[in-house]
Automatic annotation (TrEMBL):
Organism: Thioclava kandeliae
InterPro entries: MetI-like (IPR000515), MetI-like_sf (IPR035906)
Membrane association type: Multi-pass membrane protein
Family, per entry: Belongs to the binding-protein-dependent transport system permease family.
Name the record gives this protein: Carbohydrate ABC transporter permease
Localization per record: Cell membrane
Pfam families: BPD_transp_1
Transmembrane region(s): 30-52, 97-119, 131-152, 164-184, 205-228, 234-255, 267-289
Length: 300
């Protein structure tokens, strides 16, 4: 009996230590979840405030804070009707979509093609071209506004949507190629060699191997390109001046801030509609965004 007692005591002590370790892990997990939930609430609070303010009557918005809607829940869609009918928000959203979607598609497509060429193809000046792309990453686009505006006026591109495409794609492309190049360079060479042994051409290798493997990073680049294009104010403001088309939503909102006489309600509704599209995009594709950004971090 005396010889078994130390073993029993040791087992009891191990059991107590294991329970203490499990409780510690549970407390750490609980603290982490509380921190994440608190961060999400803090991040989503401005969006919630904007939405609640957009569905409140004008009198309530002018006399009390948005949180009073939970005390007196008097909501109405009148602000959205006024924003669409009187503030021309619907046409502005259509213009923003017509700018952002082609810009995103062209940026992603040209970036993956350019990155593949820099990684897989040997041609004269490849190193120089890579250095130029890196230099363009730190070149402020604002220094090109005046000469490009003069050029656009001379070739009748000023005031047109294709002119916005060219500008936004041109200055997003260096970053896109830089991002895609790191990912494509991490693809194992064995895949390329297997495709070559099977008789695949460079085009077939690009379509059948590189594009499927690059979907996460292409989604990440597409999200960033769309957000940059959608939220851009300066370029559409300068290059679409004098156009008969409805301005993009950012330009429209910037003008409404100091000109609207309908009160804060319609402006809040218009602002929430402008935020809703990128918000849906981020929430629906955030897992691709994270996978794509981390995809080229480690070279395999």
């Amino acid at each position: 009996m005396s010889m078994a007692t130390p073993e029993i005591d040791h087992l009891s002590e191990s059991r107590v230590q294991g329970q203490a370790a499990r409780r510690t892990r549970q407390l750490k997990s609980l603290a982490l979840h509380v921190l994440i939930i608190g961060f999400l609430i803090f991040w989503f609070m401005p969006v919630l405030a904007l939405f609640v303010s957009s569905v409140r009557p004008q009198a309530d918005t002018a006399t009390s804070g948005w949180w009073m809607a939970f005390v007196r829940p008097l909501l109405s869609a009148q602000n959205y009707a006024m924003a669409i009918d009187q503030l021309n928000v619907g046409a502005s959203l259509a213009t923003s979509v017509a700018i952002a979607i082609p810009t995103t598609v062209l940026t992603v497509l040209l970036s993956v093609i350019g990155a593949y060429a820099l990684v897989r193809m040997n041609f004269a000046g490849r190193t120089t071209l890579s250095l130029i792309l890196v230099a363009l990453l730190v070149t402020p686009p604002q220094i090109t506004l005046v000469p490009l505006l003069k050029f656009y006026n001379s070739v009748s591109l000023s005031g047109t949507i294709p002119g916005i495409w060219l500008y936004q794609v041109g200055f997003t492309l260096p970053f896109g190629i830089f991002l895609m190049r790191g990912f494509i360079a991490s693809i194992p060479r064995d895949l390329y060699e297997s495709a070559s042994l099977d008789g695949a051409t460079e085009l077939r290798t690009f379509i059948s191997i590189v594009l499927p493997l690059s979907r996460p990073i292409m989604a990440s680049l597409g999200i960033m390109a769309f957000l940059w294009s959608w939220n851009d104010l300066l370029i559409p403001l300068l290059f679409m001046g004098g156009s008969a088309m409805s301005p993009p939503i950012t330009v429209n909102l910037a003008g409404l801030v100091g000109q609207t006489t309908q009160g804060q309600g319609p402006l809040m509704a218009a602002t929430f509609l402008s935020v809703l599209v990128p918000l849906i995009l981020i929430l629906s594709a955030q897992r691709y965004f994270v996978r794509g950004i981390l995809g080229g971090a480690v070279k395999g």
